[in-house]
């Protein structure tokens, strides 16, 4: 009595994924290269570095690559320079 009958499927029908379900690739090396290239342009001017990091926050995902960002800034010695 409780048998499930398969519903017919149209041929040629494509299953679309929702945009929220599409995942972005995790690419810490690309993130690192983007940050370092921007910081190289700023040299040792802390105001320029601050402006760059603030502006790049719109394009680069700091939440996803937070650990990588701190490795670049602190372990890389960029913030430790006098």
TrEMBL record:
Cellular-component GO terms for this entry: cytoplasm; membrane
One Pfam family named in its UniProt record: HEAT_5MP1_2
Stretches the record annotates as Disordered: 1-26
5MP1/2-like HEAT domain residues: 15-79
Superkingdom of origin organism: Eukaryota
Protein name: 5MP1/2-like HEAT domain-containing protein
